[in-house]
Specification:
By secondary structure, the protein is mostly helical. The chain contains 20 helices and six strands.
């Protein structure tokens, strides 16, 4: 920790606890608590709280103590067989301030809340019990007696003499007061209560129990509260135990500063623990809402990925069908078939093929949309989804009612003589109010961004309704579907090119075919005659056969034969080369025509597919929009995430401060 931070750190634990509570509950809750403590701190005398189970005799004991002190008993201190105490009322007497509380285990949560609130302001405690002692609510009463009620890990017990266990109504135990039998019952009761407390408080710290008879034989029960006097209790001074109890109470009157210091620690311990519980509850709700939002986002992204995969497969399937049909049409076209007949035949074949594809592809999209909607509806009841939906509803209500301009709720003003305002329940409300206030302020600063986010998010359900369920007929497209034959206005050359693949090119055959003069026997004869002329032999070979010209010798005839064979071989070789070149040129030209045909078919496939996919792509786009509407926008997520982070820090700080509570 830096020196500057250490200089600002409050050295007093209660002050640090107050600061930590403010971070969780906000200014309203912390100010109310501070006002409550200020009212307690201004009290000049110790506050003694009468606390215990219902019908344990708390009010009867208070009436007796006030009457013995000569204090007028207030009208609210009435006794009967019914519930009479509904609030924590206070009265000063004999240098002490007494607070009567509603009974525990009355079945009314409000009564318990008021008793718990009064317990947090007690400088001293009269733990009023019946003969059963702690058995009525043993865990709770033990926690109060040992101080673990204020902090489970670091108990805050009352200082010595400030916890006074009192067992009342001893005159109803079946033994006559003042007798040896009665005294024995009193000793047994004290021993039993000591045995119940000692294992938890320690032998030396266990407070001594008082066994009293506040109203012997209920002689003063019918006396109006304002008329009670000591003389209304004529019996029992020697055995009712009131004198010893009053002596122990009066010893507290001079210990105000000491007792108040312990009270301050207990007060902030109790309310810091309550604020910690409230902060953890708010943090859990914020985390649940964020988790629900993240699950909605992940679910929407998963459905979108499934839609993308289905669309890619359907698009590839359409192009494969079109490419196959176009190739078949070109291959099967008769040589004499005209362009118009080919166009009509292509329209019929492609209409059948693409119609079946369109029905299957649209059904697949509707099936995915229906599955996404059903899964989203099924997940809506999950706790995290409900928490996020509640948050969205609050934002919608904020924008609808223009709550950004609503005045802030006023902080309760606690008069110096008033009781503690905040208990556990209201403190939880204060923590919730602080969270909602911060979220409201953020959205009030960015109303347009929030409205846009809500418009996208809350319109998803309406858009889902436009998508028909699987098997339901798709709605008609908004505009007229493209003319199936429109593509033929641009495909004439490509079709002609593809058709020409099977027809030899006239100019190519004229250019590459062997010359007519080079075929047959005429070509070798001409070549031989030219050769004879070139080498100077007299006459032509043909004349020799007919006897024309001068007769040749045997050597000359052999030479002529050799030359003639060589010239024939040379002519054959040249003819073979020309034939092979012609075949290679023909193959290359056929490959070029096939490539042009494939390119034309691919181009035609893309143009036809684009026209056939238009209304299907509109359905896909609508489905995608409905799915993406389930992804919460950052304008909704960021304020909630920021509040979650703030609560984490505040709860962590408060938990750490409570852990540093001095023992």
């Amino acid at each position: 920790m830096s020196a500057a931070h250490a200089a600002q750190e409050p050295h007093d634990w209660a002050s640090r606890a107050e600061t930590a509570v403010r971070e969780v509950t906000g200014p309203a809750g912390a100010a109310a608590l501070a006002g409550s403590w200020a009212a307690i701190a201004l009290r000049p005398v110790p506050t003694v709280v009468l606390y215990g189970p219902q019908n344990a005799g708390k009010t009867s004991l208070l009436r007796r103590l006030l009457a013995e002190d000569g204090t007028t008993v207030p009208g609210w201190a009435a006794v009967s067989a019914r519930k009479e105490t509904f609030a924590a009322d206070a009265v000063e007497s004999g240098g002490l301030r007494y607070v009567d509380t509603p009974g525990l285990m009355s079945g009314d949560p409000l009564h318990t809340e008021r008793a718990e609130t009064a317990l947090a302001e007690a400088d001293a405690l009269l733990l009023v019990l019946n003969r059963r002692g702690l058995a009525a609510d043993r865990p709770h009463l033990l926690a109060v007696a040992t101080g673990s009620h204020f902090h489970a890990d670091r108990p805050r017990p009352f200082p010595a003499g400030a916890l006074l266990p009192v067992v009342t109504m001893a005159d109803r135990w079946g033994a006559d007061p003042g007798t040896e039998e009665f005294d024995e019952l009193v000793r047994e009761t004290r021993s039993a209560l000591h045995a119940q407390l000692a294992p938890h408080t320690g032998e030396r710290s266990t407070p001594a129990a008082h066994v009293v008879v506040a109203d012997p034989y209920q002689m003063a029960a019918g006396v109006p509260a304002g008329e009670l006097r000591p003389e209304h209790y004529p019996l029992g001074d020697a055995w009712d135990g009131i004198a010893a109890l009053r002596s122990a109470l009066h010893a507290l009157a001079g210990r105000t500063a000491e007792l108040r210091a312990h009270t301050r620690t207990r007060f902030w311990t109790r309310h810091a623990a309550a604020a910690l519980d409230a902060g953890r509850a708010e943090l859990a709700e914020a985390e649940a809402a964020l988790a629900g939002a993240c699950r909605q986002r992940d679910r929407a992204l998963l459905h979108e990925a499934r839609l993308d995969a289905a669309c890619a497969a359907a698009s590839a399937r359409l192009r494969a069908l079109l490419r196959e049909e176009l190739a078949r049409l070109v291959d099967a076209a008769p040589p004499a078939e005209g362009d118009e007949a080919l166009r009509r035949r292509a329209e019929n074949r492609l209409a059948t093929t693409t119609g079946a594809w369109r029905a299957a592809a649209a059904e697949e999209v509707r099936r995915l949309a229906f599955a996404a909607r059903a899964e989203t509806a099924a997940a809506a009841a999950a706790p995290g989804n409900e928490a996020f939906a509640a948050y969205v509803d609050e934002v919608v209500e904020l924008l609808r009612s223009d709550a950004a301009e609503a005045p802030e709720p006023t902080v309760p003003q606690v008069a110096p003589a008033g009781a503690v305002w905040l208990g556990l329940g209201p403190l939880a409300l204060a923590a919730r109010h602080e969270t909602r206030r911060r979220l409201r302020e953020h959205h009030a600063e960015h109303p347009e961004e929030t409205r846009r986010a809500l418009a996208d998010f809350t319109a998803g359900e309406a858009r889902d309704g436009d998508t028909p369920a699987p098997g339901q007929a798709a709605p008609p497209p908004d505009d007229t579907a493209p003319d199936p034959g429109a593509w033929h206005t641009e495909t004439g050359p490509a079709a002609d090119d593809g058709g020409a693949a099977d027809q030899p090119d006239a100019s190519a055959s004229d250019t590459s075919a062997p010359d007519a003069s080079a075929s047959g026997a005429a070509a070798p004869d001409a070549s031989v005659s030219d050769a004879f002329d070139t080498y100077g032999f007299p006459g032509a070979p043909a004349a020799a056969g007919t006897g024309g010209g001068a007769p040749a010798g045997h050597a000359a005839e052999a030479m002529v034969g050799l030359v003639e064979e060589a010239l024939v071989f040379a002519a054959w070789y040249h003819l073979e080369r020309r034939t092979r070149k012609q075949a290679a040129d023909t193959a290359r030209e056929a490959a070029r025509r096939a490539a042009r045909r494939r390119a034309a078919i691919d181009d035609l496939t893309e143009r036809i597919a684009a026209g056939r996919e238009e209304d299907w792509l509109r359905l896909v786009a609508a489905t995608r929009t409905a799915i993406r509407a389930g992804i919460p926008a950052d304008a909704l997520m960021e304020p909630l995430r920021a509040e979650r982070d703030r609560l984490r820090r505040a709860v962590g700080t408060l938990d750490r401060v409570l852990g540093e509570l001095p023992l």
